[in-house]
Amino acid sequence: MRNFKSIARRELLGYFQSPIAYVFIITFLLATMGCTFYLADFYRNGDGTASLESFFVWHPWLYLFFIPAIGMRLWSEERHTGSIELLFTFPITHMEAVLAKFCAAWAFIGLTLALTFTLPLTTMFLGDPDMGPIIAGYLGSFLMAGAYLAVTCVMSALTRSQVVAFILGVIVNFALAVLGYGVFAEGLERNLVDVLGRDSGVWLSDLITSLGYSTHFQDLLRGVVEFRDVAYFLSVIIGGLILTRLVIEQKQAE
Questions:
Q1: Integer Cα distance of 42 and 45 in angstroms
Q2: Count of beta carbons in the 10 Å neighbourhood of residue 123
Q3: Looking only at Cα atoms, what is the longest distance across the chain?
Q4: Cα–Cα distance measured from residue 153 to residue 75, given in angstroms and rounded to the nearest whole number
Q5: Domain count of the chain?
Q6: Domain extent for 30
């Protein structure tokens, strides 16, 4: 446990010892504010209610590039520089190392997300928002960021190249993001119904879309925190960490 804390602390502090962290934070904040206030026209909410839906709705697409940019170096850099061999000279298991590096990166992302606190304050100033969807939205966004990061960890462990890890992370996360997206889900259901019939087509379509980020994130944005949505994101995170460990062990055995 001591080495776990040491590695996690070293990784987290490492972000702030280079300008990359500050560039990431500033760019993410500018991107979220730009999407919220300009693209989504925050001040002209169509139904006249005070909410942060126009803020959260962009997160799946912003994370598509920001999270792989953070996660691509987690294991690719260790393998490229050869420091992975030094890492495992410490009395720490592969799973503890994977978890320590993941937790540090996830904590950094969580801190960046927390810096958007001015938006809830602005919403409270402008009106009387329902805090349930806002709290659930932040929870869902944080969990979804963890899922994006876990997938990117697997991609980072597969290659020595950070660029390749980034591209793979974007591709796989994009596939998971669009699975539950409205337009894709509707088109998928229509095609499956045409091929398999209504009952089988609808069932298979629901099954496929339930594997996507958007399906579960949209449910949380409604302000209802259901076990199945939280369990989905945690399952992706746990599965990603286990796959990362297996890949690292296999690469070291070669």
A1: 6
A2: 20
A3: 61
A4: 7
A5: 1
A6: 2-253
